[in-house]
Each structure stands twice: as structure tokens, then as C-alpha cells.
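Sample entry (280 residues):
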Amino acid sequence: MSPDEAPSAAAAPAPFTLERTAVFGLVAGDGSAYRIAVAWPEAPPPAAGYPALVLVDGQALFATAVSAARLQAARAEVTGVAPAVIVGIGYPGAAPFDAERRQRDLLPVEGGADRFLASIVQEILPAVERFAPLDPARRTLAGHSYGGLFALHALFTRPGLFAAHVAGSPSIWWGERAILATEERFRAASGFAGRLLITLGEAEQDGPDGGDPRRRERRAMARMRDNAAEMAARLAASGRVDCSFVEWPGENHASVIPAMLSRAVGFALAAPGLAGRRAA
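Predicted structure, serialized as C-alpha cells:
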């Protein structure tokens, strides 16, 4: 067919789909509606179940994470990445980010992050197990921006629910850095709480501002790199978590997402002996 010829009805384009994936709706006990995306491996599950990477903001992150996980698992002899289940927790509708819902679910306010975290563990993950068994000892929670803040809050307030956490470009600035008080209580406690990866893009703090003074002021207030690097250093020194920090040159708050997800896959799903080395 030449470029000028119109495709026939039989050759009409079809939607692109990912194999071994499913999407279903779930209404939590509090009435909140979610759109859950699940991807599972072709390989049979281990006796304890598959490792799992659980993503908030599922519409924005799920497909990229699935591609990264499958590409890396296909070269396990190089990457060490095991076949795994990827779970994307999103909302009804097509928007990649639902501003209203994510503020309600991801921020550490009354009826917010704690309620959502309980729904994930008590309702969403059990529903996912209809498709594939999950190993409770190899679950990782990951998020970006407010989702990164949510991952930190989950680690600090409910250590042990997940074996590892990935905080991508975490909004530590939110609420006049209220998360720092939660972090301090976490560091003052005892017991090893797993692994943490904090990431961000270099341009999130020092990138071009287009001559917009308001944007410059917001960046100065947010201190994205400084807040993240300082927190990572404190947590690494505390001994409570095996904490790694990664900054990607030239990437901004949006462009860093694919890099974060690729690294999150290796961090979350590599064989236990390789996980810490790959995160560095």
C-alpha cells in the first residue's frame, strides 16, 4: 500500500495492548473508586508468590514500568531482575494524573494517606491476587512527586508493610516539610525497616525557569534536590534503612519519570544479593 492510499476497513488500526495484563475497577470500603492495572509474568510463580512492584498514579506509570520490568527480566543473567507482578493503582478516567484524587489519597492529612495505605494492603492487593499470587516479603511501593511523599510516609509510619520503597522526586516541601517530623520519629525508633531508593532529576531544582520569577520562587521554596539529598543522608546514617540516592543530570520533574521507573524495577526486583549494588 502506498502512503497515499487509505487503509481498507479490514486493515483499520486497532488499539495497542500489553499481553498478560488486565484492568479492573474496585470500590474500596470507604466508597473510593479505583482503576487497577495488573501485569503478570509468563513464568510460573515461585512457591511464595511473585515479587510485586506497586505503583500509585497507575495511569501515568504502569505501562512504562511494565515495559522496563519485562525488558530487564528477559536478560536476568545481566540484570538479576526476576519475573514480577506490576500493579498500577489509578482512578476512573483517562487523565494520567487526577489532581483532586491524588491530593486526597497521597498527602499525609487526616483521612488521606493512612486511609489509602490501609486500602492498598487490605483491599487492593488481595483483589490483585485473583490474577497472580504475591510474595508478601517481596513487595515494593513506588510513587512520583506526591506519590514519592506517600512512599516515604508509608515507610515512616508502617514499616514492614513493604520490603522496599521508591520515592521518586518526593514532595518533601509539602506542608512546610511536615514529613520531617514523621521521619524524625522513624529514625528514633529501632529495628531494620528495609530498603529505600530516593531519586530526582538535576533540573528539578536548578533547571531553566524561562525568566518566570514565580517559578524561580517555587523552586527555591521546594528545594527538591537539597531536601531529598539531606533526607537520604540522614536515613542512611540512621541504620534503620538501606538507603540509596540517585540524581539524573539534565532531567526535570516530568522527564525523570521513565528513568526513575527503570531504576525502580532493578531496585525492587533484582535478586536480594544484587539489589543494593544495583541501586547505587
